[in-house]
């Protein structure tokens, strides 16, 4: 599962829409049923309207009715495995269980594996609205 996700994240990077940064990111998200959703970063002439690859993959899965996830891989042409931005970590924490694995991939295909909890400890969560 890890290898498939990593391969898909790398493969989908070629679809990134990156006329401004030229920095491609690919993401591949697998559900507990084994369905895979990919995402790339999609930039915009109004820079702030851009969206990261991780959120594109998550939003695509959610829009297709998925709610339960088993793993995410994120890839970029970086020296160290690419660290997801803060906004993406917050979106991940809305949908991913604390022990869900997140695979971060570098240009040389070195992989760091983080749990959701390790990537965003003590995160604001839906239960904080009501507890
Ligand atoms: N980017 C992502 O897609 N994911 C991240 O977690 C970090 C940054 C994108 C946003 C922008 O299109 C480009 O990388 C440079 O910041």
Description:
It is a single chain. The chain is α+β, with helices and mostly antiparallel strands and 131 residues long. The chain has a single domain (2-129), classed as Cytidine Deaminase, domain 2 (3-Layer(aba) Sandwich), CATH 3.40.140.10. It has helices spanning 2-12, 53-63, 86-95, 116-119, and strands at 25-31, 36-40, 69-76, 101-105, 111-115. Strands 2-1-3-4-5 form a five-stranded mixed β-sheet. Helix 3 (86-95) links the parallel strand 3 (69-76) and strand 4. It starts with a helix and ends in a 12-residue tail after the last helix. The relative contact order is 0.18. The mean pLDDT is 98.
How would you summarize what this structure contains?
By secondary structure, this protein is of the alpha+beta class. The chain has a single domain (2-129), classed as 3-Layer(aba) Sandwich (Cytidine Deaminase, domain 2). The chain has helices spanning 2-12, 53-63, 86-95, 116-119, and strands at 25-31, 36-40, 69-76, 101-105, 111-115.
Main attributes of the structure:
single chain; about 130 residues; alpha+beta; Cytidine Deaminase, domain 2; five-stranded mixed beta sheet; 4 helices; globular; binds tetrahydrodeoxyuridine
Euclidean distance between termini CA atoms: 36 Å
The run of helices and strands is HEEHEHEEH
The CATH architecture is 3-Layer(aba) Sandwich
Bound chemical compounds: tetrahydrodeoxyuridine
Q: Would you identify the regions where 5 or more consecutive residues have pLDDT less than 50?
A: none
At the third CATH level, what is the topology name? Cytidine Deaminase, domain 2
Top CATH class: Alpha Beta
Q: Count of DSSP E strands? A: 5
Tally of discrete structural domains: 1
How confident overall, as mean pLDDT? 98
- Rounded radius of gyration (Å): 14 Å
Shape: globular
**Could you give the order of strands across the largest sheet?**
2-1-3-4-5
How much of the polypeptide forms β-strand, as a percent range?
15-25%
Q: Helix/strand-derived class?
A: alpha+beta
Proportion of residues in helical segments: 25-40%
CATH level-4 homologous superfamily: Cytidine Deaminase, domain 2
